[in-house]
Amino acid sequence: xxxxxxxxxxxxETERLILRPLRMADAKDxxxxxxxxxxxxxxxxxxxxxxxxxxxxIREVRRQYRSGFPSSFAIExxxxxxxxxxxxxxxxxxxxxxxxxxxxxxxxxxxRGIMTxxxxxxxxxxxxxMRINRIEAMYEVDNPASGRVMEKAGMRYEGxxxxxxxxxxxxxxxxxxxxxxxxxxxxxxxxx
Length: 192
Ligand SMILES: CC(C)(COP(=O)(O)OP(=O)(O)OC[C@H]1O[C@@H](n2cnc3c(N)ncnc32)[C@H](O)[C@@H]1OP(=O)(O)O)[C@@H](O)C(=O)NCCC(=O)NCCS
What we know:
This protein is 34% helix and 33% strand. By secondary structure, it is an alpha+beta fold. It has a domain at 12-135: Gcn5-related N-acetyltransferase (GNAT) (Aminopeptidase, 3-Layer(aba) Sandwich), CATH 3.40.630.30.
């Protein structure tokens, strides 16, 4: 049931999470973790310096929604009804039927399988509702926890790209992971 490339972000639900569009009211929760330099270390944004910085971030994401680009989901922790991270599309290429996913999570919630749960659901949603053939994700080589998330979500390592990004003044090598629609389909058939 392939619908389109750019449909508005839906609300998705997993066992412990709600994935939904970001709201202005998330600014407080976002600032609480996005000010942490350990969270921003391996992503391409800088630690937020004030709540207005977080509001600006949300405004930009919501501007992308309005322009038709699905951008990022807020990750809401059901147990506390609290926004604890984001996961979403860095870009979508309608000609190549491909996209890249990126994510970040509040440090207080690391190592509980939360991002793996979110990534699996976004991969499922992407393949089942968009005409996407290939989903990519990349991480800096000194951020192995992110690589584990990609592996646990069924993505495959494809290679290391030397100095692929310039992050906070340094060139970084990144490892590229991907999953194809046919791989997703056959893994699903294997399970059922
Ligand atoms: C990377 C990140 C998303 C992981 O989220 P998470 O919810 O903690 O991930 P999960 O709990 O699903 O899985 C983490 C895995 O990494 C492993 N891990 C954690 N620290 C590690 C380390 N230093 N070296 C190797 N593996 C590590 C965990 O043991 C776990 O694997 P396991 O289930 O096999 O034990 C989170 O740490 C984060 O948001 N970091 C800051 C932002 C960021 O780096 N985003 C990604 C940019 S590419």
